[in-house]
Each structure stands twice: as structure tokens, then as C-alpha cells.
Amino acid sequence: MNAPLVSVKGVEKRFPMPSHFLQLKKPVLHALRGVDMNIQRGEAFCVVGESGCGKTTLGRVIMGLLEPSAGEVHYEGTRIDTLGEGDRRPFRRKMQMIFQNPYASLNPRMNVAKTLAEPLKMLGDGMSAADISAKIDDVMAAVGASKEWLTRLPHEFSGGQRQRISIARALITDPDFIVADEPISALDVSIQAQVLNLLSKARQERNLTYFFITHDLSVVEHFGDRVAVMYLGSVVELSDVAEIFERPKHPYTRLLLSAIPRIGGQAFSAERAPGEIPTAVNPPAGCAFASRCPLAHDRCRVEMPVLRDAGGGAMAACHALD
After folding, report:
1. From start to end of the chain, where are the E strands?
2. DSSP tag of 110
3. Nearest to 28 by CA among 38, 37, 41, 15
């Protein structure tokens, strides 16, 4: 396998929680706990899991919007999580992000032309006004937007149109890598397919690599190449999309698959053991899924499993594989 475009090694992220000044032990939220993954150039790498599992935090750490508490982030072999803003500038052009909420990610006081021109003025290395205008026209055509949009403000657009503008803003610097943070979850179902098709088309035409964050496995089935399943800040399974849908290895993955509605087909079944969902403020010492897992035994409650070969090209963090 070729060298990865993006590599994440042992990344942790901890957030201090509000506390009383008399508390001796300050509470800490463990958002990421030792995440390892490699993302290959040109692939759509998807990350799935329940709300609060750390998907968005991981994407923001990769982009440099959050600083990791531990671990390393590499881009094309260069460690970038320790770079200052000046040294990181060349990577800003190569790495862009599409945010979840198109209603909040656009500046309400800037029209579309100014919104798209701003990244080029910041990162374009002295591009002329004519070159910026030509680039804006090119990217607007790529996302199927009209030139008439350029003079309008964000509140004049629908959710789907705003997300097209957000995608255009991410494409304007000709990036190689895009973090897409649930880019369709805030949209109507009728619009979601259009946005997914637009992202797929941009990937083919521009040789893009996606880090695609979602909670919807049915989207992963049609869009992704590989998928990482996260639970309480850790990756519990990493596999090709086809393998994970045909032969899921981790009990939590089976639980997620059993929630997908199936019409006229055999749905996945997964046993659900009673138990409380642990909190990220005080995560358990062993496997975080042990309290909900029908296969859990004593070892699971004291020893945290690590990702290892589970067959079929998949990796899983589960003691039951033994």
C-alpha cells in the first residue's frame, strides 16, 4: 500500500470541564482516546458512530482547528499538529473543511462573491483580481450554481443552496483533502442525494480525498471506500465498506447495522445487553462498550482492547475475537 496522505497516530483530546474551586480532582472530558488511522490518497474515508463519539473532534484535530492533547497528525509524511500558523499556511490550501450547518458556517454579512474570494486572498499568494474572478466562476460552475448568486447574501438561499456555496468555498483553493462534517444532515432528504452526487463528482474530477463524517451507515454504503466505526472516543472497527456490511466484526458495528431500515430484505440482528452508556467524563478502564455488549466478560471490564487484524482486511478492537 502507498504511503498515506493523512496519518493519525495515538491522538487524544481532553477538554477540562467546569468545576467547583474546592474540587481537588478537576473533571475532564475524554473526547478522543488513542485514535490511529491512515487515509489513502483518492479515497472516501468515512467515520461513523453515535453523537458524542468524537467524530467531529477528530476532524477538527486533523484540520488544526483543535490541538491534540497527545499523539501526532501527519500530512504527506510531514507532522503538522505542532506547526505554527505561518508554517501551516501551505497546508491550509491543501486541506479544507465543509461544516455541518450551512446556516451557521457562512458569514451573514458577506455576499457569495466575497465569501469565495476570501480564501484566495488569504491563501492565494498574491492572485490578481482577474484571476480570483475567473476562479470563482469556475468553481461556481463546478457546483452547479448560477452567477446571479454572487451578489446575494446567505439568508437569501435555501439550505441546499447554502451547502453548495460551502462546497464551492472548500474547492476554491484546489485542495487535495477535504473534511466533510456531516454535510447533508441539516438538509431535506430530497436535497441530500444532490449534495452527495455533487461531492462524488468533485472527487472524480479533482482527485479529492474525503474524510467524511456521518452517523448514517446507509450513506456510507453508497459513498465510502473505507469506514472507521467510533465509540466513546475510540475506533472499534476499521474496514472496507463492503466487508463491514457483509461481515461486521465488532458487536457495536452489528448494533449500528441492525438500526438500518431494510425494505424487503434481511436486516442485521444484534443482541442488546442491558446496561448504562458510559460517560466520556469518566470512561471505563476496559472496553467502553462492555456495559452494552452481550459478549462481554471479565477481561473486557479491566483491559482496553486495541485494533488488530480481524480477517477479511478488517481490524477490530474486541477481546471476543480471541
Report:
1. 6-16, 28-39, 44-48, 70-75, 78-79, 95-98, 177-181, 209-213, 226-231, 234-240, 308-311, 314-316
2. S
3. 15
DSSP 196: H
Whether the per-residue pLDDT at 57 is higher than 90: the answer is yes
For residue 59, CA distances in Å to 44, 62, 73 come to 14, 5, 11
Q: Are the C-beta atoms of residues 314 and 292 closer than 8 Å to each other? A: no
Closest CA to 37 of 183, 236, 214: 236
Over its C-alpha atoms, the chain yields an Rg (Å, rounded) of 21
Q: Give residue-wise pLDDT tens across range 123-135.
A: 877 788 999 999 9
pTM for the whole structure = 0.91
The alpha carbon dihedral of 42, 220, 157, 60 has a sign of: negative
Question: Domain boundaries in the chain?
Answer: 246-322
φ, ψ of residue 219 to 5 degrees: the values are -70, -40
Residue type (1 letter), 36:
D
Edge-to-edge strands, sheet with 70-75:
28-39, 6-16, 70-75, 78-79
Give the dihedral of Cα atoms 141, 147, 148, 152; nearest 10 deg. 90
